[in-house]
Design a protein that fits this description.
The chain is mainly alpha-helical. It has one domain. Helices cover 65% and strands 0% of the residues. It has 8 helices and no strands.
């Protein structure tokens, strides 16, 4: 059982809940790669969506994820409600990551939370797009997966490519500046668009 350490402090009184607040990075691709493949393949084979159209929908979903990532990080993750429970809310949502930046087990979102969000959003996309939501959501899920993997790698990997070195510098600058900027993790595009670069 993964337990609290100075690098990975206890967040919840319940041992059961605290256990599930920690997740090794490799659990995310184990869960989401089959889901991405299944959504895309079912859209193409089950609903006869053409491969080019499905690829376009996949790319659109991936792009929508990059904006979702930026927006969530800039607003929800860095929001501290002005209430008695506000500081605790912020700590649970994202503050723990800023306070314990080297915690290897809290760099990717626990599947209990990410799967709950997927279970909410997938039916919403189905209502909007019907069967076209399958390759679209596959792309959005792939965007989420790349975000989680890049986030982990920027903290604990040894980037060799110029692109990854730039992403790492961008994210580390976010951690160490007090000016409210550099919210993109897997992409810096929206920081340029919304002038938070």
């Amino acid at each position: 059982m993964m337990s609290a350490t100075p690098e990975s402090p206890r967040m919840f009184e319940s041992d059961f809940i605290d256990f599930f607040s920690r997740i090794p990075w490799f659990a995310v691709p184990i869960i989401y790669v089959p889901m991405i493949i299944a959504l895309f393949a079912y859209g193409v084979a089950g609903y006869h969506i053409g491969l080019i159209a499905a690829a376009g929908l996949f790319a659109a979903g991936f792009l929508v994820w990059t904006l979702t990532e930026y927006w969530l990080h800039r607003t929800v993750f860095h929001w501290t409600p002005k209430t008695s429970w506000g500081p605790r809310f912020h700590f649970l949502m994202h503050g723990v990551h800023h306070d314990y930046v080297n915690d290897r087990l809290r760099l990717v979102m626990p599947p209990a939370a990410s799967l709950a969000l997927a279970a909410f959003f997938m039916p919403t996309y189905w209502l909007l797009l019907g069967p076209l939501s399958l390759p679209f959501f596959a792309g959005k899920t792939a965007g989420y997966l790349s975000y989680d993997m890049i986030h982990y790698y920027t903290h604990h990997g040894k980037p060799r490519s110029a692109w990854m070195k730039k992403l790492r510098a961008h994210h580390m600058n976010h951690h160490h500046n007090k000016e409210g900027r550099k919210y993109g993790v897997s992409s810096t595009m929206w920081d340029h668009v919304f002038r938070t670069f």
